[in-house]
Write a structure and sequence with these properties.
heterodimer, A: alpha+beta, Alpha-Beta Plaits, 2 domains, four-stranded antiparallel β-sheet, disordered C terminus, B: 586 residues, alpha/beta, Rossmann fold, 3 domains, 37% helix, globular, thiamine pyrophosphate (chain B), Acetolactate synthase (chain B)
Chain lengths: 177, 586
């Protein structure tokens, strides 16, 4: 299984998420993570969809099907090496009085994580990074009781100097431009 | 569907007398009809109901400009619009109410998307303030139709109407055609536009830009492959008809002398008399076309998508062939069969661009190979089918006799099943744009309403619906629509008292375990007469000629039931999972 990040640029109107996910559902492709936000251009949304698939060819076909949605401006499929990407996670960690205190210095300096909220009996720590980095921190902080843990979808930007560059596959994109 | 009085009481009704306020302002319903008129729509297939009543009220004022045809079931509206669109190349239009009105369209919409048929379905919806409240006849029709429309949109304000209708028609018709659904809330139908109505046709969209002219380098690469080929084989599909590329295809074949085979939906695009025409492809296609698919060196696929009914087992399909794929939808390239030379664009333009680049050629020897297989097929299948010794009439003789009587120039609308495959095999199409059938979806019940829609679109052509007894009972109520219109649609029921194709499969692959395929049928002729449609039953071979003559001579709709052999099979056949080269003759 290879991880693919699919970036979809669409008009920002009602129902586009539904129009995209139905294409994945029909092909029995599970969404590992999903992030949607408006881009630097007003009225244009960017979907970042992470999937795992064993067939690059199937992902290429998926990308072309997503491109067929009328409101979709462009679709790019990326391998992890092609992009700078990150996620954000929040940990609500129990710090009851009398328990072993959390090591703020290690959290900050080793794990590059930050306490964003202090409470008498717990703290909320924000950790930004890749999935692996977040889970390394998860393992580190686990001995303190984790009351809640939430991880965002991936956000990703292509490493290419061009703003809209395709990786999957090279040739077909030209039809769309 | 049923009109519920209670519903309107909850709706804010717009001022009824529009002209008294601001003479130039019209409501959303009038804007909708005027938009349709601006798009050149002359015919609407529809069925009224609660959530679309304001539009129906508006249509009342435009009966001079627009011919509204009242179907008997919304599925009939969808298939009639499809038949109209397939016949004319123009966008078919349906108008129905919310909830069940909309969901009854679903089969037709799914049929239209898979067979690339341009259609705009305007569907009523509860008022915007009721959306999501489970209001009477509220259904999430946008959600339901996302996977089966090329585009869909919900209009909630009258002001949106002209722009959205323009967009709907542009999307439905351009590129690879398909169905568009517009859901319009009742308040949008009733309220006045805030500005005076003006209409501008949509000619492009930022996010949707179908490529019509292929890239020159793609055309050159394709030409090179074609010119190098020793045993080239051209497949043409529905895309040729959609692009009106029949003449360009003929020029191409005449210059290159390449043998050409049709897909099911490509049938009639070139005359079956043409010296380069070698038959049709796929599960029940011809012997030679299937076998030689695995012996050609270059396939030139024009406007077709390598449906699994064409390819059979993909792992053994044309592995030796290099493929040129001319196709307007980029997602079809490499979807099923890898194309060495893809040409993305309109089939007509692509063939036009190819023409000067390809060499004149002669493929007599290669074409003769098809003839060898034809001879075997003719002896083993075609001749026995056409001159049977059975007591009962066989489907093939009905179709071939009809073909001869109509000189191969009628429009044939076939339903789905054995009679469909027999029609494709034995009707000898001479004129382009003459075969309409549900290909991709295989929708039983398609033919009766689609034939009616085709006749509306081409009243001067003889339109004959070829229907099985099972299919006929799925949309039988559209006899009422046909009778009311008075249009002389000719209907042939090939009655074998079986769901024949399923029975054939049960015979061949399920040890003759005939599981729920035998039908106890009503008296179709009496039913037809009840609707006011004349007809008769033909049960004897010696009556067949006279029966067909009588049907064809009628200037009114006519229903001819032919009692055919109960258990006949369609051959040749590439069974599911088999390779095209292993096509069975018995």
């Amino acid at each position: 299984m290879t991880t693919y990040t699919i970036c979809v640029f669409t008009e920002n109107t009602i129902g586009i998420l539904n129009k995209i996910t139905t294409i994945l559902t029909r092909r029995r492709i599970n969404i590992e993570s999903l992030t949607v936000s408006e881009t630097e251009r007003k009225g244009i949304s960017r979907f970042t969809i992470v999937i795992r698939h064993e067939s690059r060819e199937a992902v290429e076909k998926l990308v072309r099907q997503i491109r067929k949605v009328i409101e979709v401006l462009a679709v790019f499929g990326y391998l992890n090496d092609d992009i700078a990407y990150n996620e954000i996670a929040l940990f609500k960690v129990s710090t009851p009085i009398g328990a072993k205190p959390i090591d703020i210095e290690t959290i900050n300096k080793v794990y590059k994580a930050w306490v964003v909220y202090w409470h008498l009996t717990y703290v909320i720590i924000q950790k930004t990074g890749t999935e692996e980095e977040i889970f390394q921190f998860f393992d580190y902080i686990k001995p303190h009781e984790i009351l809640e843990f939430v991880r965002s979808g991936r956000v990703a930007v292509s490493k290419s100097p061009q703003t809209l560059v395709d990786y999957l596959p090279e040739a077909e994109w030209e039809y769309y431009q | 569907m049923e009109f519920n009085e209670n519903q309107t009481q909850t709706i804010q009704v717009a001022e009824p007398v529009v002209s008294a306020i601001k003479p130039e302002l019209i409501n959303g319903s009038h804007a909708l009809i005027q938009s349709l008129i601006k798009e050149g729509v002359e015919t609407i297939f529809g069925y009224p109901g609660g959530a679309i009543m304001p539009v129906y009220d508006a249509i009342y004022d435009y009966q001079e400009e627009i011919n509204h045809i009242l179907v008997r079931h919304e599925q009939g509206a969808a298939h009639a619009a499809e038949g109209f669109a397939r016949m004319t190349g123009r966008v078919g239009v349906c108008l129905v109410t919310s909830g069940p009105g909309a969901t009854n369209l679903v089969t037709g919409i799914a049929d239209a998307i898979i067979d690339s048929t341009p259609m705009v379905c305007v569907v009523g919806q509860v008022a915007a303030h009721l959306l999501g409240t489970d209001a009477f006849q509220e259904t999430d029709v946008i959600g339901i139709t996302i996977p089966i429309t090329k585009w869909n949109y919900q209009i909630t304000r009258a002001d949106e109407v002209p722009e959205i209708i323009a967009k709907a028609f542009y999307i439905a018709k351009s590129g690879r055609p398909g169905p568009v659904l517009i859901d319009i809330t009742k308040n949008a139908q009733q309220e006045l536009m805030s500005k005076s109505f003006s209409y501008k046709k949509c000619e492009n969209l930022i996010s949707y830009r179908p490529r019509l002219s292929p890239k020159q380098e793609q055309v050159e690469a394709a030409a090179k492959l074609i010119n190098e080929a020793k045993r080239p084989f051209l497949f043409f599909g529905h895309g040729v008809q959609i692009a009106n590329a029949e003449n360009e295809l003929l020029k191409f074949l005449e210059k290159t002398d390449i043998p050409a085979a049709s897909t099911l939906l490509g049938l009639s695009s070139i005359s079956c008399d043409h010296p380069n025409y070698v038959g049709w492809l796929g599960m029940h296609g011809n012997y030679g076309t299937n076998v030689l698919t695995n012996q050609c060196d270059v396939i030139i696929a024009v406007g077709m998508r390598f449906d699994d009914r064409v390819t059979g087992d993909l792992s053994r399909y044309a592995k030796q062939a290099r493929v040129v794929h001319i196709e307007i939808d980029p997602s079809e390239i490499d979807k099923i069969v890898k194309a060495e030379a893809p040409v993305v664009g309109d089939a007509r333009i692509a063939l036009e661009m190819l023409l000067p680049l390809i060499k004149e050629n002669n493929h007599e020897a290669w074409k003769a190979e098809f003839k060898k297989y034809d001879k075997i097929e003719d002896e083993k299948i075609t001749q026995p089918e056409l001159a049977p010794t059975t007591e009962k009439i066989k489907m093939a003789e009905v179709i071939r006799t009809l073909s001869n009587k109509t000189k191969g120039e009628a429009v044939i609308v076939a339903d789905v099943g054995q009679h469909q495959m027999m029609t494709a095999r034995y009707y000898q199409f001479k004129k382009p744009n003459s075969f309409i059938t549900s290909g991709g979806l295989g929708t039983m019940g398609y033919a009766l309403p689609a034939a009616f829609g085709a006749k509306v679109g081409a009243p001067d052509r003889e339109v004959v619906a070829m229907i099985g007894d099972g299919c006929f009972q799925m949309t039988i109520q559209e006899l009422g629509t046909i009778a009311q219109s008075g249009l002389p649609v000719k209907i042939i029921i090939l009655n074998n008292n079986f769901l024949g194709m399923v029975r054939q499969w049960q015979q061949l692959f399920h040890q003759k375990r005939y599981s729920f395929v035998e039908l106890q049928n009503p008296d179709f002729i009496t039913i037809g007469k009840g609707f006011g449609i004349d007809g008769h039953t033909c049960g004897a071979r010696e009556d067949l000629n006279a029966s067909l003559d009588k049907m064809l001579a009628s200037d009114k709709p006519y229903l001819l039931e032919v009692l055919v052999e109960k258990e006949e099979n369609v051959f040749p056949m590439v069974p599911t999972g088999a390779c095209v080269a292993d096509i069975r003759l018995e």
